[in-house]
Amino acid sequence: MLSYGEAEHTRMLRDTIARFVEKEMPNERVQAWDRDCHFPKDVHMKLVELGLTGLTIDEKYGGTGRDIQSTITVIEELCGRSLSVGGMYIQSTCYAGLNIAEVGSEKQKEELLPKVANEGLIFAYGFSEPDVGADLASVRTTAKRDGNTLIVNGSKRFCSGAAHSDYIYTLVRSGSEEERYRNLSLVLISPDSPGVTLSQQQTLGLKGGGTYDVSFDDVEVPIENLVGGEEAWNNAWPMLVGPGLDIEKVEVAGMALGIAAAAVKEAWEYSQERVQFGKPICTFQSIRHILADVQTQLHACRIMTYHAASLLDQNADATVETSMTKLFVTETAKDIVLKCQEVLGAYGYVTDFNMERLVRDVLVMPILGGSSAIQKNNICNRMKLPR
Ligand SMILES: Cc1cc2nc3c(=O)[nH]c(=O)nc-3n(C[C@H](O)[C@H](O)[C@H](O)COP(=O)(O)OP(=O)(O)OC[C@H]3O[C@@H](n4cnc5c(N)ncnc54)[C@H](O)[C@@H]3O)c2cc1C
Predict the structure, then answer these.
(1) Which secondary structure element, helix H or strand E, spans residue 240, and what is its range?
(2) Most buried residue among 140, 228, 249, 327 by CB atoms closer than 10 A?
(3) Is the CB of residue 271 less than 8 Å from the CB of residue 281?
(4) What is the CA radius of gyration of the chain?
(5) Do 158 and 179 share a domain, yes or no?
(6) Residue 241: which pLDDT band, with cuts at 50, 70 and 90?
(7) pLDDT in tens, 274-321
(8) Is the CB–ligand 1 distance for residue 133 below 6 Å?
(9) Is the shortest distance between the CB of 375 and ligand 1 below 6 Å?
(10) Which letter, b or e, does each residue of 102-111 get, where b requires 16 or more Cβ atoms within 10 Å of its Cβ?
(11) What share of the chain in percent tops pLDDT 90?
């Protein structure tokens, strides 16, 4: 890998994960997980044993201290081999760990954060709904208070990993719809609760943990599961768009970076093995130029991703930088992977090569965690371009 100023401890972590990936995530297993929409919990638990789900959690709660650059390094390395493992690592370390550390009540931190660090607790995001995509403030799933119980009704869509999660981190409308950004709350709902029904959706990529439609039919949730404690009732919007959102953009960039790096490696190697007209195809200028372009694009993506992560480690206000990173890295990763597919010719289109899966997986990256159009809106709005 080209040098980009990686700290020594991060480089050592990257080497450890690379060895882990070779041992625990061989290509035949990865292909089977993707084909069967399988989440290998045993591999997830080995990451927990290595202490990697504690990278977002303070020592006080059983982690190793919040370190976003290291977390993104793990995400990059895992997603370069398999989103079945990498995606669910994010759902534990970031969805559960970072969110509860950021906006949970003290009681929730004491109870849940050690479980993330030591047991690999997993959250699924229950934000999107059949009629709600980018415009999250218009969610229709409701929660009503009945004493110390919340009664939840409605449905969520695209709830990734819901069947494997301990809790669905669910955005609900908890009061009148008139004030758009008020009267929203976040509730932790176990997918095993009576009244919760899951139904799997078929997707092009990101297959490992599966993506689900979830319906809530008079689901009873204890008030203790209101994220942030009772004072957070009707006050979820600031929790949703706070620093956690900036980190989420860089998580997706880290996933896209891992996929793009894997594609470049595969194309680089293939170009030296494949012989046509009596020569390895890497000797043809057309192929050399593609490979020079993707290496350059990859380097730019890596610098941008880890620069954004370093700003987050400094707790800097990085809303614009993280939006630019999400936009540039995911769109460029898509371009990189499609160019690499070209290097493999017909073999980039068949399922016994990794490239076909990398193509399917990278296509969703500009959509997840705020689409490219939404990032462009953020950049112009935050940079105060008059509307
Ligand atoms: C595989 C997969 C996994 C997912 N996992 C999860 C998950 O775990 N949890 C979850 O809650 N959601 C999840 N999602 C949903 C994802 O977050 C949404 O797809 C995303 O928020 C966009 O919503 P939408 O697709 O409904 O698009 P829409 O919001 O309907 O947008 C459609 C198009 O219009 C554009 N657009 C919308 N609003 C604007 C605007 N204001 N300005 C300019 N352009 C605009 C968008 O960029 C897009 O091109 C997942 C989606 C997929 C495909």
Answers:
(1) helix 237-240
(2) 249
(3) yes
(4) 21
(5) yes
(6) confident
(7) 999 999 999 999 999 999 999 999 999 999 999 999 999 999 999 999
(8) yes
(9) no
(10) bbbbeebbee
(11) 95
Residues 231-237: what's their mean pLDDT? 95
Task: Please say which residue of 67, 100, 121 terminates a domain.
Answer: 121
Please indicate whether residue 25, judged by its CB atom, sits closer than 6 Å to ligand 1. no
Averaged pLDDT for residues 190-196: 98
What's the 61 CA to ligand 1 centre distance in angstroms?
34
Same domain for 375 and 247, yes or no, is yes
pLDDT of residue 2: 82
In this predicted structure, what is the pLDDT of residue 12? Answer: 95
Q: Is the CB of 373 under 6 A from ligand 1?
A: yes
SS (H, E, C) 306-346: HHHHHHHHCCCCCHHHHHHHHHHHHHHHHHHHHHHHHHCHH
CB environment 198-212: b (16+ within 10 A), e (fewer): beeeeeebbbbbbbb
Cα 74 to ligand 1 centre (Å): 25
Asked whether the beta carbons of 141 and 154 are under 8 A apart, the reply is: yes
Q: Which of 93, 121, 149 is the last residue of a domain?
A: 121
* Contact present, 72 and 250 (Cβ < 8 Å): yes
